[in-house]
Amino acid sequence: MHLYLVDDGTLTAGALRRELPAALAGWPVAITVLNMGLEHECIDPAPVDGRVVKEFYGSPAELAGKLAGADILVVHKAPVTGEVIEGAPGLRLIACARAHPVNVDVRAALSRGIPVVHAPGRAADSTADLTMALLLFLARNMGETCRLVSRLGAGAWQYDCRSRLEGVELAGKILGIIGFGHVGRRVAVRAQAFGMNLLVHSPHVNPAEILAAGGRPVTLEELLSASDFVSLHTRPAPEKIGLIGAPQLALMKNSACLINTARGELVDEDALYRALKEKRIRAAALDVLISEPPPPDHPFFTLPNVVLTPHLGGKTEAAPVRAAKIITEEIINFLSGKSLRHVINRV
C-alpha cells in the first residue's frame, strides 16, 4: 500500500507530515511526501479555468504526473482535479484535511468509486473563539479605541474621548446564529457564558436540538429583525450565495452588528458596504471575503465601522493537529476495513 502526502507548505500539511509516519508505523504502508509550495495558488472562492475545484495551492498538472503509484492520497489544499485523479489509476482513498474539501473534485472521485474523507470540525473551537473575539471587539468599540489611542496618545484618556467609546454589555443582548453545525453550537456555548440570548436559524437541524442547546429556532427574517448581533456559521451552497443581501440587511436594527467567520460568498458585499456607509447597521466584522486577498481599493478599507481579519478562523496551534488526527484515524479505519466516519458520499 502506497500513501502519497502532498506537503503544500501549510501548517496543516506540516502536522500531517509529523503525525502520519508515527501513526502508521505498524501498518504495511509506504509514505511518499511530495513537496508543492505556494508559488501556484488559487485562493479565489469561485472555480476557475473550467475546474470544479477552488481555493487550492499548487499546480494540478504538476501533481497529476506524480501519482501513478498512489493507493491513498492525502492533501490539505493541494488541487485534486479530475486530471489528478486520472493520473492515479490505483487510487483507493482521498483524504483532505479540511472541513470542506472544495479543492477536491468529489464528483470525479465518486465516479471512480473512490471515497473522499475530510476533517469536519477541525477548526470549530478556533473559529468559535475568533467569533466571540470579533463580537467583543465590536461591542466595546475596540477599532475606534485603537485608532484614537494611536492618533491622540495620552489625550485618549480625556473624559470626552473615553465617553465617545461607550460600548454595550453582552448580557441580555440577542445573538442570532445562522447555521447550527460544529461552529454555531460552540459559539452558542460561549455566548451563553456572557449571558446572551440566542436565536438560531438552521432549517436542517431538529428544533429540539436547538432548544436543548439553549437557543430558540426562528425564521431568518425573525432572527435578523430581533438580533443585536448576527453571526454566520452556515455551509456554502449555491442557494446561499448572497444569503445576506440588501433585503436582509434592511431587516436588521440600526444598532445591530454582523459577523462572518464562515464564507465570504454568504454576504452581498456591495449591499453590506452601502448599509455600513449609510449607518443602516452599526458595524460588521469579517474574517472572510468573496475574493481573498481583497484588492487594495476594496471599499471596505475606507469604512471605520468594519473590522477585517485575514481569514484567521483556523489559525491556531490546535487546529492543524486536530485535522491531522482526524485524517490519520480515517486512514487507519480504511486500512483496517472499518467504516469511514467522515466520508463525502455525494456531491
UniProtKB/TrEMBL annotation:
Which intervals hold domain D-isomer specific 2-hydroxyacid dehydrogenase catalytic? 59-345
Q: Which GO terms describe its molecular function?
A: NAD binding; oxidoreductase activity, acting on the CH-OH group of donors, NAD or NADP as acceptor
Entry keyword Amino-acid biosynthesis:
yes
Q: Could you tell me which InterPro entries the record lists for this protein? A: D-2-hydroxyacid_DH, D-isomer_2_OHA_DH_cat_dom, D-isomer_DH_CS, D-isomer_DH_CS1, D-isomer_DH_NAD-bd, NAD(P)-bd_dom_sf
What positions does the domain D-isomer specific 2-hydroxyacid dehydrogenase NAD-binding occupy? 132-313
The processes (GO biological process) annotated in the record are: amino acid biosynthetic process
Q: Which UniProt keywords apply?
A: Amino-acid biosynthesis, NAD, Oxidoreductase
> Which SUPFAM superfamilies would you find in this protein's record?
Formate/glycerate dehydrogenase catalytic domain-like, NAD(P)-binding Rossmann-fold domains
- Asked if Amino-acid biosynthesis is a keyword of the record, the answer is yes
The Swiss-Prot or TrEMBL record describes its family as follows:
Belongs to the D-isomer specific 2-hydroxyacid dehydrogenase family.
Task: Output this protein's name.
Answer: Hydroxyacid dehydrogenase
Annotated organism of origin: Desulfofundulus salinus
